[in-house]
Amino acid sequence: MRHGEAESSASSDAARRLTPSGAQSVITRIQHNAERLSSVNRVIHSPYLRTIQTAESVAHGLNLTAMVDSSLWTPDADPLAALESLADHIDSTPLIVTHMPLISYVEALCCEGAIAYPRSFSCAEIAEIKVEWPAAGLGSLVRRF
Asked: Where do the record's region annotations for Disordered lie (predicted)?
């Protein structure tokens, strides 16, 4: 999931907060897709404020307590390292809250095996990917919503 719409400036990129409409769009997306997301049992997010706020809304909307903060999911992180880190969560169904361009690179790497043609994500957009093991080319995109 890409974080909700964030303010355009702050003291640092990591300190950018969700806008009121960004926060509401996350809540609405989770409410409208709660059944689809019913198997999610963990939220992984970057340490940036906008992803923390998004992750908290997701956790609240899905009644989850398991949240994991990971610097492997920041905007400029290594897509392969981020994807491979999911092996630590193979016993769960995580929802990852992260940023552009990383989210598009990880989706392309996981589902296509390469980052040649990443697709952009809109704010609060979720990609559902089915994967037996988190590695390049082993995922299958189920849907985006």
From this structure: 1-21
pLDDT tens digits along 91-142? 999 999 999 999 999 999 999 999 999 999 999 999 999 999 999 999 999 9
- Over residues 3-17, the pLDDT tens digits come to 999 999 999 999 999
Closest by Cα among 104, 111, 102, 109 to 129: 111
6 found inside a domain: no
Q: How many CB atoms lie within 10 A of CB 8?
A: 7
Residue 67: CATH number of its domain:
3.40.50.1240
**Secondary structure of 62-122 as H, E, C letters:** CCCCCEEECHHHCCCCCHHHHHHHHHHHCCCCEEEEECCCHHHHHHHHHHHCCCCCCCCCC
Residue 56 in any domain: the answer is: yes
What phi and psi, each to the nearest 5 degrees, are found at residue 127?
Answer: -110, 125
